[in-house]
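Bumping with the actual sequence this time:
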Amino acid sequence: MLNTFIQDVQTGAQIPVPLETESVEKSLSIIELISSGGVAGQFIIGVLFLMLIGAIYIYFERLFAIKAASKIDGNFMNQIKDHVSHGKIDAAQLLCAQVNSPVSRLIGKGISRIGKPLADINTAIENAGRLEVYGLEKNVSMLATISGAGPMIGFLGTVIGMILAIFELANAGGTIQMDVLASGLYTAMTTTVAGLIVGIVSFMAYNHLVVKTDKVVYQMEANSLEFLDHLNEPI
């Protein structure tokens, strides 16, 4: 073998050079990634997808409702105080009925109690305020539930995927074959990512709605105190 190589060099013969094998890059789409996860992975991802759709629906439905509740004419309280000061209780109640907002409903409840002790008026407004806050927070707690349950369901898929991978490895007679383990590993990784996405989106949506709701609650409290202070002013 060595003599042949030396003869080839002396005669100038061309020495065959082994061709380099071209590396083939394999791409994987999201659909292929999900389909490679097996039935268990596809089921869990389907559940997480439905949870994500529900979270998005609740977020936008509540966001529009809270924005509508926060809209009120800046001159509303001035008109109310003017009507009350001149004894036009019916006109004040009519104005509250025409404005569809939590603030107007609270003030309307207080106007309906005019003539009673101030403590009774305050109690009526507080009770009405609790109902308004309950209405603003409708279904918002579902976002908190989804934000906590999403990652947990994703981790459940991770555990199932790892169990499947170990099961396939045990049945392979101790030889490690990546193609055998691929299905279980895909299930483990895809469900984890999907669960975290659902949890992050739901958590951010929940906190944003809480901040928006707190602003409306502050608005209701400020206008209620302004109304009670006006009633407490000496005539």
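The tokens above came from a reply further down the thread. The two ends are 120 Å apart (CA to CA).
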